[in-house]
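Handoff note, outgoing to incoming analyst
You'll be picking up this chain. Sequence as last confirmed:
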Amino acid sequence: MTPTDPLLLVGPQRSGTTALAGALSSAFAAAGGCFTVNGKLPYLLRRWWTDPDAEALHLRADEVTHALTRIPPHGDGSEEWLARARTALLGSTRRAAHGSAEPATSDEIRRVCAEAYGPGPWGDKYNEYLLELPWLHATFPNARWVFLVREPEEAIASMLRWQRDKPWNPDSASAASAKWAHWTSRWLAFRASVPARRRIELDYGSLCEGSHDALSEFVCVDLAPHLAGFRRQAADRPRPELCPEALSVRAELVHRGVLGDHRRD
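Most recent structure output, in case you need it:
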């Protein structure tokens, strides 16, 4: 791991990314770094730290801070991270108001993230990063990427069982299947933009079976102690029918060797 290039964990919803992010957060903390679980700071800066905002000398630290604290991130050191993020956002806003911000908005965004995450290795998991891949790649061109995917039938069944108040979560198998296909296809369209040495694609089923040596090598940390409890849920759930788009996306994942054959009879 390096202190300058973030590790970004992405994957469609209900693919095990939050559980994996928790393990990465513990591993990064042990190595003197910081990995947030749903920190979403770059995602918010994408919307509030724009060139027109900077030209108007009007960056909105209050809006981003509100979004960060409304549903705060978790993971090792997340409270300290949140305090640093507030300070970094205020500093950037004041620089912009006085005309002393970094020349390019992207430079200012990188500075805010560096100040929030500190001098050690850093990273974040946020599923919605799949919707901003080209922008993230342009802003953090040396970022390393972890893509985690789960058998779509399992992911969709989990989406349909999600009980929390999430109005954006589909409540039908057809809609959930289409959403899984669209989000996953965003990664498939993007992956070639990143050199193979800076991306790793993981099958949730294989990870649950203990195949995490490649990931440990990729992040330069032994993840075995942190993934000891990473297990597939054994509960039997009805398998929803996949839409044609989801079937096509799954076939491409299998063809590329990203997704193995973990479908249960």
